[in-house]
Here is the input.
Amino acid sequence: MKKRTPVSPDVTAALGGQLPAHADLNLLRTFLAVYRAGTFTAAAPALGLSQPTVTAQIRTLEQQTGRELFTRLPRGVRPTALAHELAARTAGPLDALAALESGPEADHATPVHLAGPSELLCVRVLPALGALVADGIQLRVAQGLPEPLLEEMRAGRHDLVIATRRPRGRALESVPLTDEEYLLVAGAGWAERIAAQAAPDDTCGLHAALREVPLVTYADDLPILRRYWRTVFGKQLTTHAAVTVPNLYAVLSAVGAGAGVSVLPRSLCQDHLDSGRLVLLHDPEEPPLNTLFLVQRPGAEANPGVIRVRDTLRRAARDW
Here is the structure.
């Protein structure tokens, strides 16, 4: 059990003078971890405590403040207005104190934990960060789907996440990073057959011609293809996939080998278009776009490497 550490008068003043004189600094650390994680369970391992201990500490802090800090939900907790105010006042001083306790030698030794979609990481992100690695930044990179990665971030596993949707709630800060354009593509053989039936600017004819062409996708519900059909053709896609593969790299390979058509992000297939291995089937005035968001874990800025990686990615994204 951690020794009780009273909040000094200086820290109390920095927090707006609203804490009781007997407030415990460890309780504030626990509060901030729960606020950022969104659940008592996720905050516990980050603090090195058991879930019942975290629950008890939050209850103690609520008794000291005389106000409820979190509304208990079936899954997690929702911060009250007082919790948002308290987090805004405590985050800076507590993060600064944590950085001091880590010591100046820890700055360069702390890896930056970054996560996002595997294809984007390989094609855009890692090439943009090569110079930072050569300059001493350590990276720990993970790939996955947005919701699991954001849940892991709330549990403290990632410093930065590139997500294909904005995270829900206000505990995680995010900024738009770039817009990804999606393209309808095929290998040369299928492109010739389709072109014989419809001109590239003939949307209705193209839609009809595609009914007889195999569809390649990374998921049985054809998420990207369905969105393209709805946005560009104004139609619901009713055709089932002919080929389902594990990821977009496999989609790219299968389409390039003549398996059928698919919709892919420009970043992934541009080189294949330039070399002629793939053919753009349609160039609509308003192609489907997907906004990518850069999400940063609260408190991660205590590691200077996180700031350097974040700023480098935001600069690089201007040219993506």
